[in-house]
Amino acid sequence: MRIEPRQQLLEIWQALARSSFPKGTWEWGQWGTKSSVADAERLLCLLYPATEIPAFRLDTPDETADDVLDVLKSLGGRLDIPQRLLSILAEFTRVHTAEDGTPKFSGGYYFNPVDSDTKLTDEQRELGVVDSYSMAVTLSLATLGFLKVFLRSPRRQEIMDLAKELETKTQKRLTAAMISLLRSFSVNTFDIESPRGQNLLALVNQDHAPTRVVVQNLQRRLKPLRSSIGDSFVLGVDVRKELANENLMFECGWSWGLVDGAPEVPTRATAGKQYEGVAADVPYLYFTVVALDGIADLFSERTLTLGLLDEEQQRLSEALRMRWEITQQYWSTIARFGEGGSWPLEDIPWPATGPQTESEYYSLSVAAILVQDLVRRRATDDDLTRTVAVMEELAVRGRITRRMTPGDPAVALHNPGVRLPLLGTEKLGPPLEWRMSDFSAQLFKRTVQLATFSKNIDAYDRLIRLAESLLEHLWRRRVSGGRGTRLWDNIRAVYPHSPDTSAQPVSWSMTERMAESMVAATHLYEQPPIRSRELSNFATALLIEAGHLFGAELMHAKGEEDSRRELALKAVDISLRRARRVVAEQPGTACALAMEALGALDSLTRARDAGAKGG
User: Fold this and answer.
1) Following CA atoms 137, 139, 140, 146 in sequence, which dihedral angle do they give, to the nearest 10 degrees?
2) Which of 111, 118, 267, 469 could pair covalently with 430 via S-S, beta carbons 3.0-4.6 A apart?
3) Which of 20, 64, 103 has the alpha carbon at shortest distance from 511?
4) Rounded distance between C-alpha atoms, residue 420 and residue 293, angstroms
């Protein structure tokens, strides 16, 4: 199945509009407003493409494309759509704000009790979670960008008032989410002899070297990060004392929520109450990746161009960026550790180093962090290429590019998904867990992103073919009937022996990941194609020959009735000029144009030779 991001995004939007506007007005449905994560994912399915892709923009009604208007016609006309969107965003903000004005980031029904016979307490349902903080950053920035463009033109006073109120509340929510991300960051220290230390040692010692040598090399590689954390972290965490002991190992990333004992972040902004945390002070790979994705939006080109952050938010953004960079470097170092042999990342599945168990999902998470780090520091293409084999192997192990048999344990990777115990939730009730069932969508998203970064033709081709296989798999998993038609996730469509999930027909996490993936695919096709040195040399050689023959052809005398020859030469001149302009970026196109010109020149030569013989 070919990746056609525009058409596929239009289908997602059409299905979303049908599901959320069944009678011409927005309806949250049975599960709506019961989880800030799910509600944010639902809104991002619409707002993220609308603010990331110019062809899908909704903030300038006069520029909204006709096919976009057609799929969103249940929202109204060209002028109605942005106003409806403002009202929906305002309702979302109101629902997820406490009575005292503090933004709420509750996990809600995304939390699950470890023991299915127990029930969550109300306090547990209202617990904030990193997924919500990260989604709030992305959704808030998208909302602020939408408002900034929408308000450039005069609007009715009631629309202006609603927009201004939404802008104020969104700024507050963004600040609160940034503070919460700072307070959810974890730097965990442990002894190498502890179970955690032994797990880390087994992970990085792919060459079976002496333990002492491995520990010394690992400490040496991590020493700059240890210094950076100890010297620079002043907001939300203070671990200088623990890191001063170089005999202790450490790991960093994000816990599942506000860390137990995390100090309040001093701020001049009005962001509401800073609640006490209960989350265990240990990093979770899943939540680390989620946090990194959201934080990256704070310093994206669009955020900087539109000036979406105020002075206080910029200060918080710098603190988050520091954690973003250090975390990427840490996990990139662990993933590639060794002396030229096999990477730990290539030893699938990624083994447990924390509260999670080993899983292909964590191999995918580490691969996502590694790719971002390699791109950030412009690593060699060989490093990126080695990750391709990891992605292909993950698709095989997930039974996406291979057939799943009855009773195959791989089905649990998709349904019920990977289960994460949320350490600390037992303080408020029964122990809770978080389930990740979006392995296929995450793998598709990361594959498309890796293809965007890759400059190796063979690796790019493998990634595109893998992405097309993943998309075909995911497209078959769309819901086939009811309110959620053509949204996700009908997992039994591809895994018939999987447990029934029809009680909750729409998975907004899967649907949002698919929308994100299509945005990533759009960016992929917007960039120039990969250039081949061999093809560039071939194109240049063809242009040299064609240019020479063209000059030689111009040397021949013009006949009295030679209009056809003049037209042919003009066409050749246009083709050669075009070929010279694109040869650097599109050598294949230049080859085609040069060969077309060579064919036309040869036809003129043969015609002239035939005329000479006939004369």
Assistant:
1) 140
2) 118
3) 20
4) 19
